[in-house]
Specification:
alpha+beta, six-stranded antiparallel sheet, five-stranded mixed sheet
């Protein structure tokens, strides 16, 4: 038997009208949702709309390139570098994840690691030389062990030093598994090592042999730990009989702004260290509010063309405030502050 649906006109007219009204409201809501999504796409994803030529070129390359498409994220990284090159500014640059991790460790003055030095052997093989009393040495790693794998990832000879070191480093207290091949028969050995804090000193010091009353402070980087390292170095040199000091900033490419300001404050009683101005904003001054811990020590500062950025802030502040004479050659001349923005994959933009 075939059943036919009855016409709505044969039923309740008011119910039918309500049905039509509900359908109209649903369609209206769907339209508004679509419009809202389109507008949100417009405002939240302006890149796709503002860079139509890039999007078109990207699509053409993916569809027509004869050579294999570079593995991700190489193509994306190349686009970023091309964009930044248009600024023609050596201080505006892109840094890939392994290099960014190592730079961050250097600026913090320490890292979580297993305490090894990486040396290239025959056929570019990565060899490990553990620090005495470090985690790797305590675990049983010996000089010349060839690194074969880190956390089950094979370490190929074409990996860069930075990539290998980044694999070995990680949060302090966290364990990392390494496999090494030990001579003479390449016996595979696996070690599960707990990472420890490894310090990266930014300051070294010594007394000059010709004049044992002269203490030399060599600062290779302005890191977060540098102000405290300088105070410790001066204390040690004083204990050895130092009466005068040489602050060696040659080939110091800079580092962090705030620690640079704090280094200058160590030696100053008062005055202005630097002034900073953002685009379309008022100038901010960094002042000395109280006498520094090293304000009384006789001081001379060495600089050269490799002295840059935060190191120039220190040298310039000491010279401008009449605290120390500069000796050497003109410094690099970087008069801008560089910001580092972390990206989601561990890479970074330096702007």
């Amino acid at each position: 038997m075939i059943h036919f649906m009855s016409s709505p006109w044969n039923g309740d007219l008011m119910s039918y009208k309500r049905l039509i009204l509900q359908m109209a409201l649903i369609l209206a809501n769907l339209s508004l949702a679509f419009l809202g999504g389109w507008l949100a796409h417009d405002y939240l994803n302006p890149t796709e709309l503002d860079l139509p030529v890039l999007a078109q070129a990207h699509e053409i390359v993916l569809g027509h390139a004869f050579d294999p498409i570079p593995a991700a994220p190489s193509l994306e990284y190349g686009m970023i570098r091309g964009m930044l090159s248009e600024f023609d500014d050596p201080n505006t640059r892109f840094v890939e994840p392994p290099q960014h991790e190592l730079e961050t460790d250097n600026l913090e003055g320490n890292f979580g690691g297993i305490g090894v030095r990486l040396v290239r052997g025959a056929e570019n093989a990565p060899l490990l030389y553990p620090f005495p009393d470090g985690p790797a040495a305590e675990a049983g790693v010996i000089d010349g062990d060839r690194l074969f794998a880190v956390d089950q990832r094979e370490v190929l000879s074409d990996l860069s030093d930075d990539e290998i070191i980044a694999l070995l480093r990680g949060p302090e207290g966290q364990r990392v598994s390494i496999t090494v091949l030990r001579a003479p028969d390449d016996t595979p050995l696996e070690f599960n090592i707990r990472r420890a804090q490894i310090d990266l000193p930014s300051v070294t010091w010594h007394l000059t042999p010709e004049e044992p009353r002269l203490g030399v402070l060599e600062i290779n980087l302005i890191a977060a730990s540098t102000p405290e390292e300088i105070k410790a170095a001066v204390s040690d040199l004083e204990g050895q009989g130092a009466e005068k000091y040489l602050l060696d900033l040659r080939d110091n490419g800079g580092g962090l702004l705030e620690p640079g300001v704090e280094v200058a404050r160590l030696f100053l009683e008062d005055g202005t260290i630097m002034r900073q101005q953002f685009r379309d904003q008022d100038t901010t001054s960094y002042e000395v509010h109280k006498a520094g811990a090293l304000v009384d020590i006789p001081l001379l500062v060495l600089i050269n063309h490799g002295t840059a950025s935060a190191a120039e802030i220190v040298a310039g502040a000491l010279q401008t405030n009449g605290r120390a004479q500069l000796l050497g050659s003109p410094s690099y001349g970087k008069d801008s502050v560089q910001f580092i923005f972390d990206l989601q994959d561990g890479s970074s933009l330096h702007i």
